[in-house]
Amino acid sequence: MSLARLPFPDPGTPDLRSTAAYLRWMARAQWRTLALGITWGVLWMGTMAAVPAGIGAGVQAASEGDQAGVGRAVAIIAVLTTVSATTGILRHRMAVTNWITASSRTQQLVTRHAAHLGHELRRTVATGEVVAVTSSDVEKIGGAFDVLARFAGAVVAFLAVVVVLMRSSVLIGIVVLVGIPLLALAVGPLIKPLERAESAQRHRLGRATELASDTVAGLRVLRGIGGEDLFLRRFRAASQEVRAAAVDVARVRSLLDAEQVALPGLFVVLVTWIGAHLTLTGTLTVGQLVAFYGYSAFLLIPLRTFVEAAQRWTRAYVGAGRVVRVLRLERSDVATSHGTTAVPADAALHDPVSGLTVEPGTFTAVVCAEQVTADEIALRLAGLDEGGAAVTVGGVALGHVSRAGVRATILTQDKDPVLLSGTLAELLDVPRSGRVSVSDAVETASAYDVLDALVDGSPDVSDPMRARITERGRSLSGGQRQRLALARSLIVDPPVLVLDEPTSAVDSHTEARIAAALRDARAGRTTVVLTSSPLMLDRADVVVLVVDGVVAATGRHRALLRDDATYRAVVTREEVTTP
User: Fold this and answer.
1) CA-CA distance, 13 to 560, in Å (whole number)?
2) pTM greater than 0.85
3) CA 352 to chain centre
4) Whether 551 contacts 368, CB under 8 Å
5) Separation of alpha carbons 508 and 502, rounded Å
6) C-alpha angle with apex 539: 372 to 411, nearest 5 degrees?
7) Lowest mean pLDDT among 230-239, 329-338, 442-451
8) Separation between Cα atoms, residue 147 and residue 310, nearest integer Å
9) What residue ranges in 414-549 does DSSP mark as E strands?
10) At 15, is the secondary structure helix, strand, or coil?
11) Helix, strand, or coil here: 22?
12) Which domains does the chain have, with CATH numbers?
C-alpha cells in the first residue's frame, strides 16, 4: 500500500461485532504491508541480536593472538551492522506506512459514517466525542499497527538468543528464558491502572472539547446575554479536570518507566555476575562472557518492546471500542438510506404535517407565523427531520428514496449557511447541472461586491476566485455569507431548491435585486422560499401562510395582504386587532 494512494477510494465495510473483530478486520485489510513490516522487523532485530556473538568471537580471538580471527569478527560485525541499519530503515518506513494506513482508514470510516448519520449524529454523540475519536483514538489504533513489526522482531530475536545461551550455558539460558518474561509480567499490574487513567483523561478531554465547541458556536449569543464569564468558568473547570486526569496518567506512567529501567538493570547485573562466576570456574571463555553481557544488554530492547506493545495495544483497544460504538450508530430513518433511487423531479412536493403542497416549476413563498415552524418545514422538505420521511414528491415518500436520490433532487439552504475555509473557486466547486454559470449565479445573488471585498482583503490576489475565505466565513458579514451561499446553491441548480430566509441579513436594495433575478434564474424549476420579506413575497407565484404549524391561507402576496389580517400582521409586523 503506497501512501500516495491515500485517502482510500473505499475504506471498506468493517466488522463491528466486537472491538477485537474490528481490529482483526483492520489487520486483514492491510496484511501485505504488515507482513512486509514484520519481515523487515525480524531481519533488523535478528541481525542486531547477532552482533554480541561477533564481538565475543573477536575478543576471544584477540585473547588468543589470532589476528585472522579478529579480522573475520570485524568483517562479520560490519556486515551485521550494515544489514541491521538497512533493514531498520525499511522497517521504520513500513511501520509508518502501517500507522498512517490504519489511522487513515479508521478516520475515513468515522467521517463517512458521520456524513451518513447527518443531523442525527448530534442527537446521539457529543461533538467533542466525535472530535476526540477522529483526532486521538485513530492515532492510538495506528500506533498498535506501528509497533507490530518491532514486536515480531523482538519475539524472534529473544527466542534466538535463548537458544544460543542454552547451547553455551544451560544456567544462563534458563535465567534468560524465565527472567525476561517475568520482567515483562512485572509491569502488568500497572497496565490496567494506566488504561483506567487514560480512559478517564480521554473522557474528560471529550467533555472539554464539547464545551469549547459549544462555546465557539454560540459566542455571539453569549456576548449578547453577557454569558462569556459563565462559560469561561465552566471551561476553566473542565480544563482543570483534564489537567488532573493527565497528572494521574503521568503518575502511573512514571512508575511504569521506572520499573522498565530498574528491573532490566538488575537483570543485566544478575546475568553478568553469573557469567563472571562461570568464567572464573573455567566453564565460559572470556569471549563468551563478553558475548553474554552483550546479549543481556541487547535483551533490554525486546523487553521494552514487549512493554510498549502491551501499552499501545491496550490504548488501541480502548480507542477502537469507541470507534466501534460510533460506527454502530444507525439512522432512525433507515428507509431513507436504503430505499430506491428513483424520485420524480418534476412533480408536486407535499408535506403532510403542515399540509403544504408545492407545485412543480413554481416559485413558492412560505410565510410562517413562528420562525421555529419555518425551520421545521425546511428540515422536513430536505428529508432531514424524523417526520421528513412522510414528505412526498409526486406521491413518492422521501422515506422510500435513497439519500443520494434525495440530495440529487432537493437542496436546502439554511438561513445561517456554513462556508468552509478555502478559495472562492473551491467554495463554488460543487456538483452542477451546467445550466447556470458561475457568473450568472453570482449576478443573481448580487454578490459581485462580495468578490470585490475579497480581492481588497487580499492585496496579493487579483483573481477573485483565488481569494481565500476564512473558516466558516467569519471575515464576511452575514449578508455576504448568505449571498455567496445563494450563488453556490444556484450553481448546483437542483430540481427543487428550498431557501430558508436567504436574504434575512441583506439590505432592502440588494434584496430587491435578488428577488427580481431569482425568479428568472429558477424559471422552470421548483423553488420554495421560507420568508416574510415583502420584496421576496411580491415576486412569488404562490404565497402560503402557515399558522400553528399548518397551512392557513394560499394566494398571491397582494391579495393576501389585502384580505387576510393574520397574513398582514405577520408580514408587516402589525398586531391583529379583534372587534
Assistant:
1) 55
2) no
3) 37
4) no
5) 13
6) 50
7) 329-338
8) 10
9) 422-423, 468-469, 496-500, 526-530, 542-547
10) coil
11) helix
12) 17-327 (1.20.1560.10), 334-572 (3.40.50.300)
